[in-house]
Amino acid sequence: MSRNYLERILRARVYDVARETPLDFIPRLSARLNTDIWLKREDMQSVFSFKLRGAYNKIYNLSDKQKLQGVIAASAGNHAQGVALAGKRLGVPALIIMPTTTPPIKVQTVRNLGASIILHGDSYDEAYEHARTLEKKKGLVFVHPFDDPDVIAGQGTVAMEVLRQHEDPIEAVFIPVGGGGLIGGMAAYIKRVRPEIRVIGVEPEDTPTLQSALKAGRRVTLKQIGLFADGVAVRQIGKETFKLAKQYVDEVVLVTTDEICAAIKDIYDDTRSVAEPAGALGIAGIKKYLQQSKGSCGNLVAILSGANINFDRLRHVSERAELGEQREALFAVGIPERPGSFLNFCKILGKRNITEFNYRYHDDKRAHVFCGLELSGNGKERHSIIERLQRRKFDVTDLTDNETAKLHIRYMVGGHARQVRNERLFRFVFPERPGALLDFLAGLSRGWNISLFHYRNHGAAYGRVLVGVQIQGAEVNEFRAYLKELGYRYHEETDNPAYQLFAGSGK
Q: In the prediction, which pLDDT does 505 show?
């Protein structure tokens, strides 16, 4: 089998549309992890993904009669672009079945490449079944996204380039796994040419397609799959790709969504490119591998398989990257409900950067604060902060690994406070710097009670804070004089309808 695939890969016709992408050394992450890490830049293909290699090789090798009939494929993204581009370059009519949920930008991109498109079903599985029906009905040739020898061979050319570009020893190559086309082709080539190199697949924890199959000794169909890394959201490994994986893959590493987000940030820091979640799996896998091996290793290569990320997903990536890097901790902290409690709490934390601070008055005894803190990346640091707060009699609940808290509760802290009297709401803007929030709270320590507080560090030059303060009528002028002395830009929002509807006293 290996000789057969070696020959297929060496003969694969991909460079009519694909380019030989760089194998870049990434210095910042390498220095941080004390290991030389290299990144294979398949995000630099014309369609921002490796998928055009296999699609073009498959269509190129069709008979003249098959090319005349045309091809059909099912895909919501990268494979669709590869098939469309190959069809355009070879003059072969291409029909792509895409789920109705496919983002419009991806639909338009495929259409711009000259393919015909049918939107069908709410998922890839429904689009796939419809494509197989039309294949028979219209006499078209189905171009499978991964489970086809010509497709696998086309993807295997990535390995051919890696070994040519890095002739020095390589300890391991980390490859994203969805249906298995990329890892199948690359592993077949690597183990034939340089068998000492470890081939390691990387999958999301919520989509362990290959790992589940290897563990069971047979292909299994996952009942549920994660959709964050949509480029590898496949329920079942391919039949042909599983044969190759069983023979050639040394290990599979699973990573969390937060770890994928952290890897996207790592790649951006070193390359200024934004990887799609599936594309960042290789780097996430390297970091997990190094954690488990407890030390530095030889040269490690990650395949950056694609960069087709939806812009609206960047917000989620940014939110979760620091958690995945263990550079942010989330706590629920119980503090006494009295003036100065916020300030005392912040003084205990010192100049540590506070990333989030959410609070709403509940009663006159206890307050619960949702707080985010920046960490240095030391795994023990979080526990030392908890111990320090507990020694000062603060009740602390660690929410860093609480998925409900991270996804929902952090945005729901608040609501009406019917016991609050004389509350006025102010929105502040102040220069963002370490300790800025502590300085701000210190300025409010003149006896006025804070009844609402919301702050989130967005990495901007200016911090934005929403504060509710209980002020008696006679104190209003004194408070306004204080705000003028404080010197920060502010707007009073007491009459804002959004506040009155969702966070005011409800009276």
A: 67
